[in-house]
Amino acid sequence: VNKSTTVFLGGPDMGADAAAVEAQKNRCSEQHFIYRRGVELGWLGVRDASAEKPVQDMESIWRSARPLHLRAIVSDRLAAVEPDMEQTYALVEGVLDGESVMSMMNELGYFDRIENEFQFAGGFSDESDRQGIEQLEFETAEGEDQDGVSIWMKASWLSFEDDDASLRFRFSYGREGHEDVASNFHKEQLTAMLAEAIFPESSAITSNAALGQTLRQVTGIKKTAFVERIYYFNAPNGGALFHHDVERGHDGVVYAQLFGSTAWLALSKSDLLDNFLAFLDTENIETTLSSYFESSEISDILQNRGERQYWSERFDDREDGTVEILLNHIPAFFARLVAQGHAYILHAGDVILLPQASLEACCWHTVFCLDDFPGEALSFAVRDTPA
Ligand SMILES: [Fe+2]
User: Fold this and answer.
1) Mean of the per-residue pLDDT values for the chain?
2) How far apart are the first and last CA of the chain?
3) CA-to-CA separations, 7 to 2, 173, 192, in angstroms, rounded
4) Ligand 1 center to residue 243 CA distance, Å?
5) Residue range 264-270: average pLDDT?
6) pTM
7) Distance 225 CA to ligand 1 centre (A)
8) From the CA of 351, how far away is ligand 1's center (Å)?
9) Per-residue pLDDT tens for 55-65?
10) Which of 121, 169, 363, 382 can bridge 137 by disulfide, Cβ–Cβ 3.0-4.6 Å?
11) How far apart are CA 235 and CA 233, in angstroms?
12) How far is the centre of ligand 1, averaged over its atoms, from the C-alpha of 380 (Å)?
């Protein structure tokens, strides 16, 4: 487990040459310009990892809802899953070219390959869901899930923007977004098996002794189950806005970068609130906010600048457009979080653990693509296997 070795080099106005000079001054081995969907945030540098001290007491970091960066923990599995990832890349490229997921899977032999375990039962796309691409339903070969509750894989875009080709495949069961997904472990397990069959590179997480051991130690879970699986293909200009992944009955999320690189800000909700309140308290905050908000909104924000509980509740409202801008668009806030040690760079083979115990004790995170091609990453929820 590694501490953040990321440093802030400069704001969005800094040029590449100046960033390279700053990087050298800070003894960085790489530097990255961080932007997403037209929002430019600034330059990150990464210090040589060999200089750092490993983190002690991973359990208490997990309990405090802070992230754990496990550098290169799945690296030795990457060669074995490379053919699976090549197949996946062909599927993703087809979808990016406008092919339907169903026809691509058919053409690439997916349905034949998994037919001993699962049978394709139909696909549809919901016109009213602007981010949805296609949802494919499956049945087990024995038909043991003929209870009217389907298991499915859904392909979605990560944003509404035309110039962000990031997409994901998500596996779940029943009605989408239903409240108590952990209540039916049998179904969760079937969807996990379906995900494993379609994307065998999942074994980089699920059959990884080192990661399994670390997870048991950190979380205290005796027999880890990997459920609610999402396969991410973050494309240039793309990534995820700040969010949490709290789901009742799940302990947290394990995210593994298999191909490409991503930049992250990840911190406990409590640390995020601390930084946010301190940010609202900075000297020229009014000027900073005036680039983003009307004056009535600025006075509304500043009137509540010390109200921790008020902001805690607003953070949890996923529809709050003001919070979305405050957390995701402002270079000065980004600079602050990086300077406080909350930024991480994930290269292929790296894992980040994101504890998600409750709305209050959870790890918030935001992701940026660092490449000029779509990467691949696995994001699985972790829970104990019921006796
Ligand atoms: Fe997430």
Assistant:
1) 92
2) 30
3) 14, 41, 37
4) 6
5) 97
6) 0.94
7) 18
8) 13
9) 678 999 999 99
10) 121
11) 6
12) 10
Determine the 3-state secondary structure of 229 from DSSP.
Answer: strand
Distance 239 CA to ligand 1 centre (A): 10
Which of 158, 203, 192, 231 lies closest to 378, judged by CA? 231
Integer Cα distance of 328 and 163 in angstroms: 18
Taking the C-alpha atoms of residue 114 and residue 205, their distance in angstroms, rounded to an integer, is: 20
Q: Cβ contacts of residue 282 below 8 Å, gap of 6+?
A: 288, 332
Q: In what order do the strands lie in the sheet with 351-355?
A: 68-70, 351-355, 252-259, 376-384, 224-233, 167-173, 151-157, 132-140, 118-124
Q: Measured in angstroms, how far is the CA atom of residue 219 from the centroid of ligand 1?
A: 18
Residues in the chain, overall count = 387
d(CA 97, CA 91): 10
Q: Give 245 Cα–ligand 1 centroid separation in angstroms.
A: 5
Confidence of residue 51 (pLDDT cuts 50, 70, 90): low
State both tokens at 222. Answer: 């005796």
